[in-house]
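Practice problem: predict the structure.
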Amino acid sequence: MKIKRFTATDMRQAMGLVRDEQGPDAVILSTRRIADGIEVIAAIDYDESLVNDAVRQHATPAASSHPVPATPPPAPVRPLRRSPPATAGIPARAPDALAPRGTPLATAGSPLRSGDVSPSPARTPSPDLAALETARMREELGSLRAMLETQLSSLAWNDLERRQPLQAGILREMTRIGIDADVARALVAELPAKVSADQARYLPLGLLARNLGISGRAQAEGPTVTALVGPTGVGKTTTVAKLAARAVLRVGAEKVALVSTDHYRIGAAAQLEHYGRLLGVRVYPAYDAQSLGKVLELLRDCHTVLVDTAGIAVSDPRLRQQMEIFANAGGLRTCLVLAANAQSEALDAAEQAYRSLNPAGCILTKLDEAPSLGGALSLLIRRHLPLDYTTDGQRVPEDIAPADARKLVCFAVQSSRAALPDTGLLAERFGLELAEA
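Answer:
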């Protein structure tokens, strides 16, 4: 049996060290928290009988090598009580370790007799000490639970790789391109029970493209009034100019109008007016819901009306004021603009912030700046948001294209520069649910 001590900053890192050093057959003998983090003692080639024998030998006192004196000692010495044999895997504690601080050794290791020491009154633990003990116990239970979850996740993922290697490979590839775990699991659940190696390579990408909703707004020919909403910095004003240029080429400048409600950002209205002069399109300001209604009534004969909105952070209190402007605007189609280079958490927060407006579509911008499209694609699939357009640059109107699910999925696979994820990450993302299933 080979026993080794490992130290790490947390339990997950410690379990990784044990797995890398001793393999999946290692046995955890003990864990405890130290000043620098976590200490784990693990063993391989574990033999419980050898441990029990070692504990018994440690607990049995060694025979004295000195001869017994012929005459009795001047004063009898009371022998200490032997420590009971420890259970397997738990080292026996020294008698003085069990005694309270300041207690004689004899009282800690032997039963009390009359006349030995004066009995002390029972002490009630203070509330502060009890609270500290409770917090320590909760922390240890939390560490133990995390360790067990990590082990169960690793076992479940290893079992999936052994029984269904093709499905495990699909989950690995989906993770590489950034698809969220819940969406990846849903796509794998749609696969047939038996797939070939070629099907496992291309069929998941086809399912990914099929689950992406496409609105087809680029082919719409009827009159539209569209407001582009979204967080700050996603490129709403530039996208409005691109859409206006496409509309001018299709129906003429006299049938296109722009409306600006962005009065928070310095120079926002001037930027939209500059685009309007270049395109020969009229630009109208709107300050509140009442003025927006009057402007839209004035432009009811226009074929295409595009409303530019202020970019406000989702945590900004002014966002509610902007939402009230569009809440009662009849006949207004809202389109959520999201940046493809944003993190998954930021995309989810933006979608949740503008969900009350019931966006009829979405425009995905900054594809050229995104290291991975997995987060954006996962949000579109999870929230069933139809995609109108995608943009990949600042040029007006060249860098905009109607949404195409197959091209978008191919671009996501080709543009991802991430390496294949390791087993630990895959076990963390998928193993626990596999174990519960």
